[in-house]
Amino acid sequence: MTEGTTSAAAEGADTLTRLEQEGEIAADYLEGLLDIADLDGDIDMDVEADRASVSIISDTGSRDLQKLVGRDGEVLEALQELTRLAVHRETGDRSRLMLDIAGYRARKRAELSELGAKAAADVKSTGESVRLKPMTPFERKVVHDAVKAAGLRSESEGEEPQRFVVVLPA
């Protein structure tokens, strides 16, 4: 192995260790939150796409956890930000941690991938660009990825919170 390969492998291992540490800090923070709110839930940690991923799941059904998701994921987004701040406080580094509660984000990702693929199909058949409704940064990213997978381009336009995706013809 060359020196460059060794340092790249070491850097990858350091990144994984750092992301695992972010996940541990987030899990501790979220466990405390669940205790305070007197909610049952298990914490699942992973590293996906160069970011720590933490999920709160429940064996007893996700009805109680829905309170932590809120309408259209608003509470989930706020909890994700608070969790990122808790990680930042401990590590001094900005976190890109993703939080999912009761599978909400996973279901949303599937719906948005379908929306992006459908928009791309519409653009391919009509040759006209398609403007989608305003979305959060997470939602736009999922749609952009689906459009790219369909072989087309897309752009985000507008100002937050009214920023939206435009799917463009080839």
Automatic annotation (TrEMBL):
SMART domains noted in UniProt: R3H
Q: R3H domain: from which residue to which, for each copy? A: 106-170
- Source species, domain of life: Bacteria
Pfam families assigned? R3H
Against CDD domains, the record matches this protein to: KH-II_Jag (cd02414), R3H_jag (cd02644)
What is the protein's name according to its record? Protein jag
Q: What is the lineage of its organism?
A: Bacteria, Bacillati, Actinomycetota, Actinomycetes, Kitasatosporales
